[in-house]
Design a protein that fits this description.
The protein is of the alpha/beta class. It has helices at about 50-55, 60-85, 120-125, 135-140, 150-155, 185-195, 205-210, 215-220, 235-250, 255-275, 290-300, 310-330, 340, and strands at about 5-15, 20-30, 35-45, 95-105, 110-115, 130, 160-165, 165-175, 175-185, 280-285, 305, 350-355. It has 13 helices and twelve strands. β7 (about 160-165) and β8 (about 165-175) form a beta hairpin. The two termini are about 30 Å apart.
Length: about 350
């Protein structure tokens, strides 16, 4: 018999490279419905060396990736351990960690999230549930997005759940199935150009707003092959590096104008992703703090009611939901939906590594 209350630490590192998000969550069943209490939460920024390494890792050899995986697992283990100690969190059922995506090539049957080695349990002194994407790829799925089951279970009062992170992705119900897919790059592009101007990110979208619109760039972006595909579909940084950035770099216009045009492109593609335009939309993720982007989404979807939740949910919703995925895995319950990823069937994905305090460190 499974219990109905779980003490969890959810851990997420996204493609926007903001850092490692950690959230302490209590999940509990009430009237057969999952509820949550989001408690302490922190984002631990990467130092400059790690930031540079993670940006370059897409081009690493297999041997270099294996070494990186070991070193990143050590880093992540320490970050998790420090978080637990800092907040004096006790009696943890599991740490549920996504790891950090380096390669995502579902079309080639491959995805790699570093930081998911078995040593992670020993390094953070906790039971760990992780490596959620690989099984879905082996079952013919995209391995992404995985967050939509959390939207379905925890945020069902919203017609659409939109996340604005390194990429944008949308989740909604259609014909009694959960549908979800990646829409376009977001902060992977905007942060890249903000960095070129000497900024960590585009604060409230002020840089993008100051630029001018370029119709030709806008049209070429919207004509990319990915946008013509139907779901299930997902994106990795390879799409940014190999396709989107080379396209934008062809245009000899100010960086501010590239960012302005790309922000409009993001909003336009989001508008195309919503079958109904007069319902309600929950927006989370770091991009929610980009006022110019949110304004453009509202401009393209004038009849949509946009809800922006508390800052804690904005910033830690993915860590929260990976915590839920871990709970479902512990219970051997479905945590990945085939209607979302295109896998052969719904399944319970992830690896469970149990911490054994009797083993030498």
């Amino acid at each position: 018999m499974f219990k109905n209350r779980y003490n969890i630490v959810g851990v997420m590192s996204g493609t926007s490279l903001d850092g490692v998000d950690l959230a302490h969550i209590i999940f509990y069943l009430k009237d057969e419905k999952w509820n949550f209490e989001l408690q302490e939460a922190d984002t631990i920024a990467y130092d400059l060396n790690w930031l540079s390494t993670l940006k370059k890792a897409i081009n690493y050899s297999i041997n270099e990736l294996n070494i990186l995986d070991i070193e990143y697992t050590k880093l992540l283990g320490k970050i998790i351990s420090d978080f637990v100690i800092k907040h004096n969190i006790i009696n943890i059922d599991a740490v549920c960690s996504h790891g950090h995506t380096i390669l995502h090539q579902p079309q080639n049957g491959f995805t790699l999230q570093i930081g998911n080695l078995p040593d992670i349990a020993r390094l953070c002194n906790q039971n760990v549930v992780c490596n959620f994407r690989v099984q879905d790829i082996s079952l013919g799925g995209q391995g992404a997005p995985l967050v939509p089951i959390g939207d379905k279970i925890l945020f069902s009062s919203y017609d659409y759940c939109l996340n604005l992170g390194g990429f944008s992705n949308i989740s909604f119900e259609k014909d009694l199935n959960r549908i979800a897919f990646d829409i376009s790059p977001v902060n992977t592009i905007l942060n890249f150009y903000a960095n070129k101007l000497g900024f960590e990110y585009d604060d409230k979208g002020k840089i993008s707003k100051s630029g001018n619109f370029n119709q030709e760039l806008f049209d070429e972006l919207n004509n990319l092959e990915y946008y013509k595909k139907t779901h299930p579909k997902s994106l990795g940084f390879e799409f940014v590096q190999d396709i989107v950035l080379p396209l934008i770099e062809k245009f000899l216009i100010p960086i501010e104008s590239k960012m302005h045009t790309f922000t409009k492109h993001i909003a336009y593609q989001i508008s195309l992703g919503l079958p109904q335009k007069n319902t309600n939309l929950l927006i989370t993720g770091g991009g929610t703090l980009n006022d110019f982007l949110v304004e453009q989404i509202q401009l393209y979807l004038p009849k949509i009611k946009i809800t922006i939740p508390s800052k804690k949910i904005i910033e830690f919703k993915e860590a929260l939901i990976f915590g839920l995925l871990g709970v479902l895995k512990l219970r051997n319950e479905i945590n990945v939906l085939s209607s979302v990823t295109g896998a052969k069937f719904d399944h319970s994905s992830g690896e469970i590594y149990y911490f054994d305090s009797t083993q030498p460190f």
